[in-house]
């Protein structure tokens, strides 16, 4: 069973995924690692997959060219924190100092050599992620389980059938309004485990301008995935 195809122009390896639920072939460029994935319905042959890729070479080349490469966070790198640019600079201690690029406000400390940068501990950032989910269950009488922060490859948050909520820790790099939208989105799943009109009505009660915040994440979410922390 072939699980990968290689294109010469552009030079790229394409990972193949079979899906019994897929109704058509879909081509996707991962925001996290710039890998290319082609999803195939059950009855599609490898020759059909090759033909599909040949037809979409130009689109794929354009998408790859548009995507910025990964950024290793270290001294001299500017990265966002709650939507504001911070400069990673040498500082006392054992990590890296993060300063507001536009105001020079100090963040966490750091040492010499290559920076071992981590996302700065910002007071209130974790509370901002969890604030919506903690308030909404009390408001609607919905049960809530644990809240955890992870680094998933394809989603910003999730809600399990047990009421456990997960959020990408990379959201602390987004503007606070965007972070609040994701929190409201997942909290609404505690009541509606779907994306029905009733679900979006619940999101709107906590986040009336959710559309603009969701659009920001769609336009700029890939930028948050660029940063690599040692």
Please describe what this structure looks like:
It is built from six helices and twelve strands. 22% of the residues are buried. The model is unreliable at 102-123 (pLDDT under 50). With 230 residues, it is an alpha/beta fold. Strands 1-2-4-3 form a four-stranded mixed beta sheet, with helices on one face. The protein is globular. The protein has helices at residues 46-55, 57-66, 125-140, 176-188, 197-206, 210-224; strands at residues 4-8, 11-19, 26-29, 36-41, 71-72, 78-81, 84-89, 97-100, 147-150, 157-159, 165-168, 227-228. Helix 3 runs parallel beside helix 4 (176-188).
DSSP helical segment count: 6
The assigned structural class equals alpha/beta
Low-confidence stretches: 102-123
- Average the pLDDT over all residues and give the rounded result: 76
Oligomeric composition of the shown chains: single chain
Distance between the termini: 36 Å
Order of helices and strands: EEEEHHEEEEHEEEHHHE
As a whole number of angstroms, the C-alpha radius of gyration is: 21 Å
Strand element count? 12
Q: Strands of the largest sheet, in order across it?
A: 1-2-4-3
Largest sheet: 4 strands, mixed
- Provide the helix percentage: 25-40%
Instruction: Give the CA-based shape.
Output: globular
Strand fraction equals 15-25%
